[in-house]
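Appendix B, Record 12. Input sequence as logged:
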Amino acid sequence: MSQSTAVDEKKNSVILTSNLFSPHIGGVENSLLYLAKAYQEMGYEPRILTSNIPRAGQAPLALSESVNGTAVERYDAQGKGMAPTVLRSFNNALKLYRRHSETNNARLFVCRYHYNQLIASLAGAKPTVYLVPGVIKFQNAPKYQQSAGLRYRLRWYYHHFMQLAALKRATHVAVFSKNMAAQLRQIGFKGTIHLTKPGVDLERFKPLPSEEKRERRIDLGLTANPNAHVFLCVGRCVGVKGFHLAIDALATGPENGELWIVGDGADMAELKEQSRKLQLEHRIKFIGATQTTETYYSLADTFVHSSLYEPLGQTVLEALASGLPIIAFEADDATGVNTASRDLMNDSHCVFVAEPAPVSLANAMRDMAALDQVSYESRSALNRKHAEATFSWQKLAQDLLAIANVKDLP
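Logged structural output:
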């Protein structure tokens, strides 16, 4: 272990943990980074504990390093020897968490994944706040997948029961939405549920004037149409994100509409084939995974939150901060849409579509593309102000300390 990541017992550390972290890309991964920055500013020494699972096709990640000034320590999730990988991973994670919990300098463990919460509790880590990213029974339900065979269903059950165990063993449980709290009750969790809100980086995600964004996206080769109205989807390319609905909607949506999909995932090939069959290849751009999503938020015109299930929606916060008008499906048990969009915004910030149908979505896209400049800029300014007034990583960092009853530093 290098000196930069060795445990310093004289400091008050906050442990932030999940199964994946940078260079992996996602809302949970980003939350660890921003919480670390907030805790540094508050005088704590944040440490991120995670696995060394690499991105597809890459070598395993370093077991220790510094990322943006925060010490990152990884347990070997592949390991060596005769034991099955899952047992090696479990043992390595247990030893890492136990080492940190036994130093007595960790004021708080914030866990963002059920596996890590369970291991941390078994290692004796206290207090822990399990900041639930999603309820697996609903988020990973087979009905939201393009294809879900027996193997998928077995993994779904396995992770569902592991999450139940993590909830039971956590010192405290927190969620980002009333919607998610209700879901925890539905799966039988009877403990106290704390409600808090995430933050968004207002410096990284910010609006650009309409004329400037049109010029820049042409200069960057993102579109050749100066009059294009660019709709943006951001997230994993999996069925639950509803990108297939956005593609179908574009086919009958505004004639000057273009769609950018930022992210990768298991359904990428199917989505590309769908766009080809609809003869939309020239109007759809698959950006792939990127560390600079803010570029595409700043250059798009409207954000399409096409998710069928979303426990919160970090991408919604990024769209609000970027001053993008938003289109989203209305949550409704009858239509199968289960999102927390109403926890984040109201009709002033978003056009809510009554049903997850391409025709309905296409109508909303046409209406948005037809807005005059004054109406568009009014919506944009309102969404940016809402993000500035409502979502703060510093407030979340303070909330988590308060939930765990951690006293302020002397």
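Residues 1-10 have pLDDT under 50 and may be disordered.
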